[in-house]
Design goal:
Alpha-Beta Plaits; four-stranded antiparallel sheet; globular; RNA-binding; alpha+beta; 253 residues; nucleus; single chain; 7 helices
């Protein structure tokens, strides 16, 4: 894509750029490795809709910047509004609409022609994703509707806990409220830093612990059970990926 798309960072330029499917993010932490940065951005923004592409570059000119391309404008708009100023690796994100289209959007509206092989690959990948999404719906988990995650309505814990497929992951008897949360149904690519970014926005956060031998679960510690409860309610059902709404309970002690 043409990478002058973000406008170089001035937040004051936002009104002059029409809403579109690509958001431009700057003020990102430059110490984070590119691969981890892309995965973390995908994890944080995927709650707002299907992401077609996350772009970030090693060049000096583009350090601390990234572009997230959504499938539709409404997802990009929601992401811009809800994540503006979000503390991402200890720095508040600055977000605006991108000035220029990414290649993937140009391809979709016919103004860009990629190599035939790449187009076929993209179509196969999209078809596979659609089939997986269909299979997930057929499974009847009841968890695929989009939650507004950390910033919106919270699904009741009982409804989340006993919704179809999630039932088998529950402990036999729920633990009493305490300061440590047990998080399940995490995608395998989840890192401690991704979880820290999500949970540290709630007061009293202490640490995240993941168990290497058991991917998909984590423990998150707070100062007391009141603080852990607020975080649980805020992030219950948060989707790191579209297929993985978090299931959060109190840890057994």
């Amino acid at each position: 894509m043409s990478t002058d798309g973000g406008g170089g960072g001035g937040g004051g330029e936002t009104p002059t750029v029409p809403p579109n499917m690509t958001i431009y993010i700057n003020n990102l932490n430059e110490k984070i490795k590119l691969d981890e940065l892309k995965k973390s951005l995908h994890a944080v923004f995927s709650q707002f809709g299907k992401i077609l592409e996350v772009l970030a570059f090693k060049t000096l000119k583009h350090k601390g910047q990234a572009w997230v391309v959504f499938q539709d404008v409404s997802s990009a708009t929601e992401a811009l509004k809800r994540m503006q100023g979000f503390p991402f690796y200890d720095k508040p994100m600055r977000i605006q609409y991108a000035k220029t289209k990414s290649d993937i959007i140009s391809k979709a509206d016919g103004t860009f022609t990629p190599r035939e092989r790449r187009r076929r690959h993209d179509e196969r990948a999209d078809r596979k994703k659609r089939e997986q999404h269909h299979d997930a719906n057929q499974a009847g988990t009841g968890l695929n509707s989009a939650y507004s995650g950390a910033y919106g309505a919270v699904p009741p814990l009982a409804q989340m806990a006993y919704g179809g497929g999630a039932k088998s992951m529950l402990p036999e008897t729920p633990a009493l409220p305490n300061n440590i949360l047990f998080v399940q149904n995490l995608p395998h690519e989840t890192t401690p830093m991704m979880l820290q970014m999500l949970f540290c926005q709630y007061p009293g956060f202490k640490e995240v612990r993941m168990v290497e031998a058991k991917p998909g679960i984590a423990f998150v510690e707070y100062g007391d059970d009141m603080q852990s409860t607020v975080a649980m309610q805020g992030l219950q059902g948060f989707k790191i990926t579209q297929q993985n709404p978090m299931l959060i309970t109190y840890a057994k002690k």
